[in-house]
Specification:
By secondary structure, this protein is of the alpha+beta class. The protein is built from seven helices and twelve strands. It has helices at about 1-10, 30-45, 55, 60-65, 70-80, 90-100, 130-150, and strands at about 15, 25, 85, 105-110, 120-125, 165, 175, 190-195, 205-210, 225, 235-240, 245. The strands form four sheets. A four-stranded antiparallel β-sheet has the order 7-12-9-10, with no helix packed on it. Strands 3-11-8 form a three-stranded antiparallel β-sheet. Strands 4-5-6 form a three-stranded antiparallel β-sheet, with no helix packed on it. β1 and β2 (about 25) form a beta hairpin. α6 crosses α7 (about 130-150). The protein is globular, with a radius of gyration of 19 Å.
Length: about 250
C-alpha cells in the first residue's frame, strides 16, 4: 500500500509547500521522501522553545572571547547549549576586505537539485587568497586556544577541512541535518562565518540550531536559536550533536 501511495503521489501533477513558504515539485520517490520528512519534522516542532533572546544567550563577543575568561565562557556555552555565536569575529576592516574577495565559481552543491530541494545552496571551494587566509588564521587560533584551554573534545583535532563558500538564491534553503550523524567522518566542530552586508529580517537565511532529537534517528523538535546571518559573525557548534537548517533565503546575493 505504501509503494502504491508513493507511486500515485509521484505520478500526480502536484507541488509541496513548507510552512516557510518554499515549494517544490513532487515528481519521483525522492521528492515524496523529502515531503514526508518535512511533514514529520514540522508537525513535531515546538516553536514555543524559541525565545526572543535565544541568540543573545549563546553569544560571546569575540573581543571578550579572546581572553582566558572569555574562552571559559565560550566553553560554558558549548557545554550547556552545544553551540556559540561570536559577533565581530574578524573585525570590520578585515571582514570588508574578505567580502570583496573573489571566492571562486559557485555551482550547485547538490547537482541536479530541483526547486524546493533539501539542499539548495550554491557552493565553491575557494583559492586561499590573502584575505581568506586572515580569516582562517584567526579561526585556527581560536580553535587552538579552545583546545589548549582544556576542551576535551578538541584534544585530537589537528586540522580543518578546506573552506567552503556558499550562497543561497531566493527561495532556497538547506533542510535540517547533522554534519557528522554517525560520528564517522571526522568532523568535530562546525564553524560558519557570515559576510552579509545590511541583513534584514525579511531577507531570511537564518541558521536554525536545534537540540539533539530525543529519539535516535528521529527528527529534532526543540529550537535552540535562529541565528541571523549578520556580517562578521561566527557560529560554532558540535558537528555530531547539533541538528541545524538554513531557513529559506529571500534576498539575492
Amino acid at each position: 500500500e505504501h509503494a502504491q501511495a508513493v507511486a500515485a503521489l509521484a505520478g500526480a501533477d502536484c507541488f509541496f509547500a513548507t510552512p516557510d513558504g518554499v515549494t517544490g515539485p513532487i515528481e519521483d520517490q525522492d521528492d515524496v521522501e523529502l515531503f514526508c520528512r518535512e511533514a514529520v519534522y514540522h508537525a513535531g516542532l515546538v516553536p514555543a522553545t524559541l525565545t526572543t533572546d535565544a541568540t543573545e544567550r549563546i553569544s560571546v563577543p569575540y573581543g571578550s572571547a579572546d581572553t582566558r575568561a572569555g574562552l571559559q565562557e565560550v566553553r560554558a556555552k558549548l557545554a550547556a547549549c552545544k553551540c556559540v555565536v561570536l559577533p565581530g569575529f574578524l573585525g570590520v576592516q578585515a571582514a570588508a576586505a574578505l567580502a570583496e574577495t573573489d571566492l571562486g565559481d559557485f555551482e550547485q552543491a547538490s547537482p541536479g537539485s530541483k526547486p524546493g530541494a533539501g539542499r539548495g545552496d550554491l557552493a565553491s571551494l575557494p583559492d586561499l587568497e590573502p584575505e581568506l587566509e586572515v580569516l582562517l588564521h584567526r579561526l585556527d587560533a581560536f580553535v587552538t586556544s579552545l583546545r589548549d584551554s582544556g576542551e576535551a573534545r578538541l584534544r585530537l583535532c589537528e586540522f580543518r577541512s578546506w573552506p567552503m563558500a556558499s550562497m543561497y538564491m531566493p527561495g532556497t534553503r538547506y533542510t535540517w541535518h547533522i554534519d557528522n550523524p554517525h560520528r564517522s567522518n571526522g568532523r568535530v566542530l562546525t564553524c560558519v562565518y557570515y559576510l552579509n552586508h545590511n541583513w534584514e529580517l525579511a531577507d531570511g537565511g537564518a541558521l536554525r540550531l536545534l537540540e539533539p532529537p530525543e529519539e535516535r534517528g528521529g527528527p529534532p523538535t526543540r529550537i535552540i536559536a535562529e541565528v541571523p546571518p549578520l556580517f562578521d559573525t561566527l557560529v560554532a557548534f558540535w558537528a555530531a550533536e547539533v541538528p541545524h537548517e538554513v531557513l529559506p533565503s529571500w534576498r539575492s546575493p
